[in-house]
Amino acid sequence: MIKKIRKAVFPVAGLGTRFLPATKAIPKEMLTIVDRPVVQHVVDEARAAGIEHFVFVTGRNKGVIEDHFDIAYELDDTLAKRGKTKELEALKHDLPAAGTASFTRQQAPLGLGHAVWCARDIVGDEPFALLLPDMLHHGGKGCLAEMIAAYEEHGGNHIAVAPVPDDQTHQYGIVGVADARAKVSQIHSMVEKPPKGTAPSNLHITGRYILQPTIFDLLARQEKGAGGEIQLTDSMIALSRQEKFFAVRFDGDIYDTGSKIGFLAANIAYALERGDLGPQLRGEIERLLER
Ligand code: G1P
């Protein structure tokens, strides 16, 4: 029987060194794409896919992420008194229902595999979604919704993939698939950050996963991989010897907001689409480019 995907894990413990000094006191996940924090965009994607419980793996100095997903009583009260009904409704809409968000801390920066393992008790014995908040997926009905549709058809484990230029394959997890042009294809090989010229394909792991809970047993071994970190990809390779893994090709736009260029591009792209900002911003950009 195919179990429903109810829970999503968001690893938000990273230090954000690439964005210093902005991230000295503010978690990188709280930097804004237009007027929503990066992490809110990713939670929006999970909600749109029908996720019911949100599991955040946080770390020291990440407390404001928890505050962001809680009620802000004084703010709500002030907005109500000032008749700002629209703003109040928008805040209420974004708030996860009571009891549907969990927070646990990754106590040491030991790698993505370790961060995911920290969610094992909260996830329990059921398949779950994993979304890396740095990577924004934009377009279609949403990346995770597309993956859940593929999961409901095929079961097993799923990884979102998209092509990258050959000179960038060493920066990502790369998968080899049976049919690179198919929307959903079985994965036959995976490698984390392959040295230049050795990648099995140009399909990179984009940061969206559906995983069976057996992954936790493999992560529990805590074996170190690329960069001396406990890598999720290594445990997925081990799991793929026992269970099926599918690649779901995402054809929308992907922004790596952990890089400055990706962050800036996402801000421009998301703002250009907004009726209240797009036309004016377009004018501003044209003016700047004419200089
Ligand atoms: C992680 C994963 C990698 C994936 C990438 C997507 O790497 O280990 O497989 O391609 O996220 O952003 P990181 O970016 O944490 O180095």
Helices and strands in order:
Elements: E1 7-11, E2 32-33, E3 36-37, H1 38-48, E4 53-58, H2 63-68, H3 73-81, H4 85-94, E5 101-105, H5 112-117, H6 120-123, E6 128-131, E7 135-138, H7 143-154, E8 157-163, E9 173-177, E10 184-192, E11 203-211, H8 215-219, H9 232-239, E12 245-249, E13 253-256, H10 260-272, H11 278-289
1-O-phosphono-alpha-D-glucopyranose is lined by residues 112, 132, 134-135, 172-173, 192, 204-205, 207, 232-233.
User: How do the helices and strands follow one another from N- to C-terminus?
Assistant: EEEHEHHHEHHEEHEEEEHHEEHH
Q: Give the integer mean of the pLDDT values.
A: 95
Separation, N- and C-terminal Cα atoms: 61 Å
Number of strands: 13
**Portion in strands:** 15-25%
Instruction: Tell me roughly what share of residues is in helical segments.
Output: 25-40%
Low-confidence stretches: none
| Small molecules held by this entry | 1-O-phosphono-alpha-D-glucopyranose
Radius of gyration, in Å, reads 19 Å
Largest sheet: 5 strands, mixed, barrel
* Helical/strand content category: alpha/beta
Shape: globular
Number of spatially distinct domains: 2
CATH hierarchy: architecture of the largest domain: Alpha-Beta Complex
Helix count, DSSP H or I runs of 4 or more residues: 11
CATH topology of the largest domain: Spore Coat Polysaccharide Biosynthesis Protein SpsA, Chain A
Q: Reading side by side through the largest sheet, how are the strands ordered?
A: 8-11-9-10-12
- Class of the largest domain, according to the CATH hierarchy? Alpha Beta
Give the CATH superfamily of the largest domain: Spore Coat Polysaccharide Biosynthesis Protein SpsA, Chain A
